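2024-03-11 09:14:02 INFO worker-7 job=invfold-0412 stage=load source=structure_tokens
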């Protein structure tokens, strides 16, 4: 199983007069872990709900494994959307929930689910509605991983979990995906934490796509420059500086855009160049003056 591909063209979704997705077009590669990054209200949940056929699109084309997912038993059966609320039967014990999943989900692995319950210290006899928020989130994670759906959509599922539990989730997700590759879309605000998991990234803002590419290509849109503060300042003259840190006489600036002689100039000035973090790139893309739309990457910056 390599997972379902997703293709959307001019996808629009509206709630009354609110446009949650405004003619977005991009693809999600089958078998990859894609990060869906966006600020609050950017349209992430709406997008994932359309893929899972929880919500009907208003316009455009959506293809999941080559087919329209709306009322499509095949693609719906191969898609698992887990939201922060858990998407489980709240008033049935965890072990009953696992039995439902084992009956309904062809790739569900009960042994893997039970190992994950142990890892997150969840009691199989407990009902989700009698668990803490963090425990419910952890159970959602267990369901999302053990269902092994060809299209697994995890919508900020880990937000209720504390840091050790979140890191256990990232490790478990990666290990399971390596053994059972499938398409995973992970929406998150915690970009620094999830960055290492992501092969591809889609950044949306106010219902529009600001960037959609593999994470390495996106990171190459900018660079960090580190060294003596004076030399750093001279190097970045005329550049778009999106972050700057100073420690004593050493400074680090994050700039968007690269030039062919960067490495040569940096060497001559005794500066070190590094890759830009997705978090800085995300802040740059989505940062904007109140009420103004964010800039998408310009062609030179995005290619
Ligand atoms: N049921 C609804 N009725 C009306 N408007 C809605 C509804 N659900 C979402 N919206 C609006 O659609 C837009 C996109 O919301 P969506 O929940 O998809 O964003 P999100 O990126 O998932 O946000 P968050 O990170 O805060 O969960 C927002 O403007 C939101 O207010």
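2024-03-11 09:14:09 INFO worker-7 stage=emit residues=303
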């Amino acid at each position: 199983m390599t997972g379902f591909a997703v293709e959307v063209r001019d996808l629009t979704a509206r709630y009354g007069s609110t446009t949650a997705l405004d003619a977005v077009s991009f693809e999600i590669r089958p078998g990859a872990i894609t990060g869906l990054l966006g600020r609050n209200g950017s349209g992430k949940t709406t997008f994932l709900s359309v893929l899972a056929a929880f919500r009907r699109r208003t316009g455009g084309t959506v293809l999941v494994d080559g087919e329209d997912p709306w009322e499509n038993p095949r693609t719906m059966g191969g898609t698992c959307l887990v939201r922060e609320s858990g998407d489980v039967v709240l008033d049935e014990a965890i072990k009953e929930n696992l039995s439902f999943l084992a009956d309904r989900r062809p790739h569900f692995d009960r042994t893997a689910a039970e190992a994950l319950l142990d890892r997150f210290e969840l009691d199989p006899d407990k009902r989700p509605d009698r668990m803490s928020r963090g425990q419910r989130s952890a159970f959602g994670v267990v369901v999302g991983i053990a269902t092994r759906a060809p299209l697994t959509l995890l919508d900020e599922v880990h937000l209720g979990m504390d840091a050790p539990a979140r890191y256990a989730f990232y490790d478990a997700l990666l290990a399971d995906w390596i053994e059972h590759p499938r398409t995973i879309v992970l929406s998150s605000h915690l970009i620094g934490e999830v960055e290492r998991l992501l092969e591809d990234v889609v950044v949306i803002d106010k219902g529009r796509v600001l960037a959609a590419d593999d994470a390495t290509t996106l990171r190459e849109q900018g660079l960090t420059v580190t060294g003596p503060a004076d030399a750093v300042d001279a190097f970045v003259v005329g550049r778009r500086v999106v972050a700057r840190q100073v420690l004593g006489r050493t400074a680090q600036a994050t700039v968007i855009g690269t030039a062919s002689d960067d490495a040569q100039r940096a060497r001559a000035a005794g500066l070190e160049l590094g890759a830009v973090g997705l978090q800085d790139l995300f802040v740059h893309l989505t940062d904007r003056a109140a009420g103004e739309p964010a800039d998408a990457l310009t062609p030179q910056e995005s290619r």
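2024-03-11 09:14:09 INFO worker-7 stage=report msg="The first helix runs from residue 44 to 51."
2024-03-11 09:14:10 INFO worker-7 job finished
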